[in-house]
Write a structure and sequence with these properties.
The chain is of the alpha+beta class. It is built from eight helices and 24 strands.
Amino acid sequence: MWSILANSNAEARGPYGSISVGNWKGGAYTHDQTGSFSHCAAGAQYASGVYFVVMIDGNGGWSLGFMHEQWRLRTGEAFPLTLTFDGQQPFNVHGVPVADKLVRVPMPNNSALISQFRRAKTMTAYTQGQLFQFNLDQTGQLLPVLANCVARIRQSGLASAGDFSLLPAARPVAAAAALDAGPAKPDRLFDQTGTGFLVSTNGHLVTNAHVVHGCVGDILGNLSGEAPAKLRLVSSDETNDLALLQVTGSFKDVAKIRDKAIQSGDSVVAIGYPFHGLLTSDFTVTTGIVSSLSGILNDTRFLQISAAVQPGNSGGPLLAASGDVVGVVAAKLNAIKFARATGNIPENINFAIKTGALRDFLDNSVVPYQISDAKIELKTAEIARNARGFTFLISCKAKSKAKEAAKN
């Protein structure tokens, strides 16, 4: 009953072959319309009525699936869930309904979400006023079986479908090489910086999830000219690249979120700490316009902006002419990859997360914030002066892989 494709608009056929790990049952699946291989998946029924599925597609992309007979969902609409692993910090994610009873939650390979899932023993999912509990004791055995399923199908096609639970034996040469390698070298740590901004007088800050992903030890934050203070990670939304932090203290100046939607052609100001310590220790101010109301591949969660941003701007506020927040700076188009693909070098193509996703994230995290419908237009210098009171430099030590995964 749960054989729905990882894609959002087509059913799947299967299972081909078999996966059996404890209560997890599944196999390989194909596109209903094309007959081509789609994904490998295994699911288990829980007493709560939820059918829980773990999926991996042909490109190695992981997803979780939640199905309940009593749900009545509309495909394409955001479905907020709060996932908690082993009682640690919760993840606020937005699932994607792919059928009237099934929700899919992507787990990017380099995300903290899949890292927690891989090693967790228990998980809770809170959604629509209900709390569901899951025992994950057997997922450590399940994940390599799912990966084996994809590898075998990609190598030999559906003709190789069989018992994917039988993993290939490790090669003796590889095992010997591992023994001779000696103790693993400790990961080298790098300085990782980004930007955040206050949204509540209780010290709640918003930034990008990738700004704090992979941080080792303390996460620090400070207003311009002030000493750094420790920040606590409250929640994270990997899907929408948002994170909520909190600093101890009471604050007078907080960013206000614009109530009215921004329009194409409107002027915007980006505030942030790019290349901190190399260019300047103070924040920088860049101006531009809203170039488009959607991001790459028409992703409507994002704005495209012409205001120049650089590494370190991530998580900073994108402000309207009134000084109110209209987005969270998120990414800069990779000029090298774009040039290789098109033969052209892009200029000033940058992206920010819209306030709709931001407000949903804050509402799900039960954080108070201020909205504004101010119609006045301020000079850029005034906007920057006001932003000084609520814009934070965020920094931590991170492993090299986290540094490479950071978008800005």
